[in-house]
């Protein structure tokens, strides 16, 4: 049975707290695991969340500030220590290659795994598999930063009443799906388009075109909300979003499930982020993330 869920490993911004680890997010997408922004302490958070190195197929780093990347050294070494049997691909801004190299080779260890480096230097598709296309869009932050989006290919949903009307049942349904036509009945006569799921991961950024491109029509949007709205000037100055801004993006982009994360240590009441997101008019499903939370990707419509 396929599993699609977000495992939240850490939700702090630059400074961790007693209750929030540095960033770290694992997306389980059917048989693959995509690790986003492994900050310091991610390897331990993986253990606490029941995530193994063998679960990782890709690592996606948005940018090379420490709270989003210092955990790379430990995660990469754990992948090698556990002798992960499959290829692991790492995506990260090409301008930060020197930082990736330093983290990958921070200390001595035995390399046993095929770790493929796939740096990002422009908007566009990074990888296509039968389950998804992975896309990157440039964001607006003091250092080069990219957000990531997974788009599942559209499929078809069979319509039982139309199948019955044409007397199609049993193995003939599969034959029709494979061949596209059966006894003069076309597949599009007895089915409809089933929209593929969409997931986006947006970290440190001001409002920009990339944010909206990533969020557009997403079933789940994981997005930073470092500041509350009363500190909008600080957010703009440091290249971040507020809770209200993030929720406005989600509302305008028709997002189904909004996940707010990456919180400044200056705030102590998580409910403030939810109140401001709702005040911005977002009416969909809303989660203010906390460490070790598991969030299912919404089911297809």
Structural overview:
The chain has 301 residues and is of the alpha/beta class. It is 26% helix and 26% strand. It has ten helices and 18 strands. β8 and β9 form a beta hairpin. The model has no long low-confidence stretch (mean pLDDT 96).
What features would you highlight for this structure?
single chain, alpha/beta, 7-stranded mixed beta sheet
The helix/strand order is: EEEHEHHEHEEEEEHHEEEEHEHHEHEE
Proportion of helical residues: 25-40%
Q: Extract low-pLDDT stretches.
A: none
Question: What gap, in angstroms, lies between the N and C termini?
Answer: 18 Å
- Structural class computed from helices and strand pairing: alpha/beta
Strand content: 25-35%
Query: Shape, please?
Result: globular
β-strand number? 18
Mean pLDDT: 96
Largest beta sheet: strand ordering? 6-5-4-3-2-1-18
Largest sheet: number of strands, sense, barrel closure: 7 strands, mixed
Rg over C-alpha atoms, rounded to the nearest angstrom: 21 Å
How many distinct helices? 10
